[in-house]
Write a structure and sequence with these properties.
The strands form three sheets. The protein has a seven-stranded mixed beta sheet, sandwiched between helices. It has a five-stranded parallel beta sheet with strand order 2-1-3-4-5. Strands 6-15-12 form a three-stranded antiparallel beta sheet. By secondary structure, the chain is α/β, with parallel strands linked by helices. The chain folds into two domains: about 5-175 and about 320-365, 3-Layer(aba) Sandwich (Rossmann fold), CATH 3.40.50.2300; about 180-310 and about 390-425, 3-Layer(aba) Sandwich (Rossmann fold). Helix 3 runs parallel beside helix 4 (about 130-135). About 35% of the residues lie in helices and about 20% in strands. It is globular and about 65 Å long. Belongs to the leucine-binding protein family. Keywords: Signal. It holds the Pfam family Peripla_BP_6. This is Leucine-binding protein domain-containing protein.
């Protein structure tokens, strides 16, 4: 997989705040505490938990998209009669963006609420992951913010994993690997040769910028590295230097606010690039508001990911998702949460009347890749003893255009593929 947006998201949180204290867990989130053992029987509802850092210090709604999408799917499923006649009951928990709050959410959902599974987890600090793994509760389709999904068994990221996942260390002895497909795409399709990488003078930001720089250099780019002061960033000076250096592309290791300010500075100094590349978290319908002061840069925003563009409503699975959202503001993370809920449902349905956690995990671990009716690039879970030196990987790409929204680029995501090197990094 590419160097994932997960590291960017964790970075943004580290940049914006210290760890939050406590969590918000209203009793209304935990009605009717009824047991749900590892095998579910009878006509009782199937209870699933959704953990999100809804009130995280990163800001309101930053981590709510996957959970919103999952709940929309289960609402639609229940309206059609449920899962083989059984209603899916969703129990939510906001961990407040802290490790303490996450551990409390895991305790409440797993130990007290006795949920059968977790779905579409989106946690800033997944401190409770070891407890989830120890309890043998499948976590289906979680967003890999941090290394938990490449560390523990019973956790299944929406993007898949090839790591051993023994619970001892992330990846292979604490090292993960990412591909260079994003950089290969822009080189081959846009003729890009010079890339700017902008970071704060902060350890996590600089570390992620080094990962991006390494991947770009592996694909033969000339890289222009820029650093701004976190407390008093001079984005205008950075943009001016990138213009003088002839940057074709701009990548960054910034938070969302910094991204918008960088775009404003690029417009102010007349920097015109082939692409200002952002990540899946920013793949949403709120771009006009967030980048309102940067109309030129806004229309050079490109995004890459591993799921089908939510704007491609000619695809039946995308249309079903959009119909369920009923014209609300939408995002790619919502679509991925919808796909996670579908994944759990398909796994549970494969069990027939013998629904058990073991049966669900057999489906998740099967050799056939999962696509959520074409919403996802093929997802599989392999436990490779050694990391591969290269992989054949595919990519979903879209570009923002005013009046049209996110427009798919590079053709169908299942055909937009390349065999690329895998580079080591430590999370």
């Amino acid at each position: 997989m590419p160097f994932r947006a997960a590291e960017v998201l964790l970075l943004a949180a580290l940049l914006c705040c210290c760890a939050a204290c406590g969590s918000r867990l209203p009793e209304s989130d935990f009605p009717g505490r009824r047991p749900a053992p590892s095998s579910a029987t009878g006509a009782e509802p199937i209870r699933v938990g959704v953990i999100s850092s809804a009130t995280s210090p990163v800001g309101g709604a930053a981590f709510t998209g996957p959970g919103d999408g999952a709940r929309a799917y289960f609402d639609a499923l229940n309206a059609r009669g449920g899962l083989d006649g059984r209603r899916v009951e969703v129990v939510t928990c906001d961990d407040g963006g802290s490790g303490v709050g996450n551990n409390e959410c895991v305790h409440r959902l797993v130990d007290e609420e006795k949920v059968f599974a977790l779905v579409a987890t989106t946690a800033l600090d997944y401190a409770g992951a070891p407890r989830v793994a120890e309890a043998g509760v499948p976590d289906v389709g979680g967003q890999p913010i941090g290394p938990a999904y490449d560390t523990y068994p019973h956790l299944y990221s929406i993007y898949g994993s090839i790591a051993p996942r023994t619970g001892k260390a992330p990846g292979w002895g604490g090292t993960l690997y990412g591909g260079t497909e994003v950089y290969r795409f822009f080189k081959q399709t846009q003729g890009a040769r010079t890339a700017g990488v902008v970071a704060y003078n902060q350890a996590s930001s600089a570390a992620y910028a080094r990962l991006v720089t390494e991947g770009l250099k592996a694909e033969g780019y000339r890289v222009v590295s820029e650093q701004v002061d976190f407390a008093l960033p001079n984005f205008r000076a950075v943009a001016a230097d990138l213009r003088e250096q002839g940057a074709d592309l701009v990548f960054d290791a910034l938070d969302s606010h910094g991204n918008a300010r960088l775009c404003e500075a690029m417009d102010a100094v007349g920097l015109r690039v082939t692409a200002k590349v952002t990540n899946v978290q920013n793949w949403s319908s709120t771009v006009p508001e967030e980048f309102a002061k940067a109309p030129v840069c806004r229309n050079t925003l490109w995004v890459t990911g591993a799921s089908r563009n939510y704007e491609d409503t000619g695809h039946p699975a995308v249309k079903a998702f959009r119909d369920a959202m009923r014209g609300k503001e939408v995002s790619q993370w919502q679509l991925e949460g919808w796909a996670a809920a579908m994944w759990f449902t398909d796994a549970a349905r494969s069990c027939g009347n013998g629904l058990t956690r073991a049966c669900v995990e057999r489906y998740l671990n099967r050799p056939e890749p999962y696509t959520a009716d074409g919403l996802l690039l093929p997802v599989r879970f392999e436990r490779l003893a050694e990391p591969p030196k290269e992989r054949h990987t595919c990519l979903s790409v879209a570009r923002w255009q005013d009046g049209r929204g996110w427009v798919t680029q590079g053709g169908d995501m299942n055909d937009n593929c390349a065999t690329v090197p895998q580079l080591a990094y430590r999370p």
